[in-house]
Amino acid sequence: MDSIKDQITNLQILLRYYQYQYHIMDQSEVPDFEYDKLIDELRSLEAKYPQFITVNSPTQCVGAPIISLNDVKKVYHEVPMLSLDNVMDKHSYLAFHKRIENELQNSDPITFCCELKFDGLAVSLLYEQGKLVMASTRGDGHNGENITNNIRTIRSIPSDLKGVNIPDRLEVRGEAFMLLSSFKKMNDEALFSGHKVFSNPRNAAAGSLRQTDPRVTIKRQLSFICYGLGLVEGGKVSTSHIECLQQFQNWGLPVSEYTRLCFTTNEILKYYHQIQVSRPLLDYEIDGIVIKIDNLLLQKQLGSITRTPRWAVAFKFPAQEQITIVRDIEFQVGRTGVLTPVAKLDPVHISGVIVSSATLHNTSALHRLGLKIGDSVIVRRSGDVIPQIISITNRSSSGLSVIIPTSCPACGSVLQYLKGKIGIRCTNGLVCSAQLKAALKHFVSRRALNVRGIGIRIITQLVDKKYVTTLSDLFFLKVNQLTEIEHIGPITAQKLINELEKAKKTTFSRFLYALGISQIGQTTSDNLVAYFGTLDTLIQANIDDLTEVDGIGTVVANRIRNFLDEKNNRQVIRILVDDIGIHWTPIVGSFQKTSSRKSLLK
Ligand code: D41
Fold it and tell me: 0.85 cut: is pTM over it?
């Protein structure tokens, strides 16, 4: 009997520690599914041996323990903020559905409202006479923290509701989260200035909401989506969930455009699969869908068990994270010469794909994590992006330190240490074979010159055989050189040459983007083209002219100027345009250098 008690106590201690790491320190040491597994284990042990349940067992409080880093004010939730039960597969979902049908004993078919499950933080907004008076976190479901000042920095949350029939007191519940694009931007900036880098958007959103200085939060750009009601006094809302959401929208509150009504299990499963397919296209993280009974009266009839309503369930997507072991660390040289550490892993399956390598942001991330070869790590794969190492779960006692290269692993040249030691860079430019390969890959890519049939496999061999030493060499390739590449016969070789010929007709913006100037993406290229109109005008532009262009600051302006001032780059551009004949239809109606954008705006 003692060992059961120990087992329960150990699980309680471990889970409390994980909760603390997650909710207070904004770090996760275990993947979510591992945490869920442990809490389920504890729950079933406590169900069998209720004498060992303690009031502060992690199973007895939802979410964050009521301790916090700062002395923040507590807020009591008159209507408790419940959490959601999870199902992980179709079988368990169907069991939930059947149970509901049985319990309601309703002859009419039940309507369900299906929504996305945003991966952020549950927040409650209190409006009095249509004015936002309080915003709070969920905390343990009964007591949360007052985060009104930070919530006021979220642009999509109105401080005044508009429209008619607004109850005197209205509590709206929803999820605060960070867009993936904002997350990336924030982390890039943090890396540059040596600030804390967050491992995922959820932790970043949590960190932002817990900021004591709202001026920091405002820079973090959080988003919000409403998904439910809390308190309603002095007024009425609809008795249908989807109509409530519609009402929220009419009052100016943000709701998701993906919410749908479903009438059968087949429709619900179809929704689940459709959302799973769209998931990589979204600019935010979701970890599943939420299925709710639409009728609020039926919801009431079913009620809740301690922490979760009986009328709703979260149907989660399969885990995107796994634990594995780091076997080696290699350094890859990117297009701009920056070295990225790549961990070679014991292969693991993550959502249908075998993952055997993962990147770290940069060399400083390696130091920050203190990663050693032999350590166990959490690897995350989301969408089509390269898998990433999120954190270390277990440090190997005999772990080998990573040897940071002192010369470029591709060309052997001396390395430069970047500002704030955030990274290391090979400054050999296109003379470095790794940078040349990456530059060529970008040059021919779909959004650049779109040369079909040429990918990294062919590029690697062409560079290794020294048939291509600059971007322009691609266009001088002969059939007999191409046939020396594996799997290329004379017919394919001729086809590739034809494709290269076709690619010579392009647009100015594609050409500019294809050059691979650091920080010049498609949008910036479009803006540069719209502003300068011709290559000659752009080449002559000074820093002041460049900073007039939408989205270009002094850093990017200097990058462009440095690129254009480099003798080799000027020569490659000249060869590409004058000798090879890359051309585009001239742009009409651009702003041109003489007409300043600022004066146009006046
Ligand atoms: O998008 C979400 N994360 C989401 C969370 C959602 N779409 N709906 C939710 N509905 C509820 C109930 C049914 C309890 C009102 C939720 C949550 N709860 C929730 N999220 C975190 C705690 C509770």
Answer: no
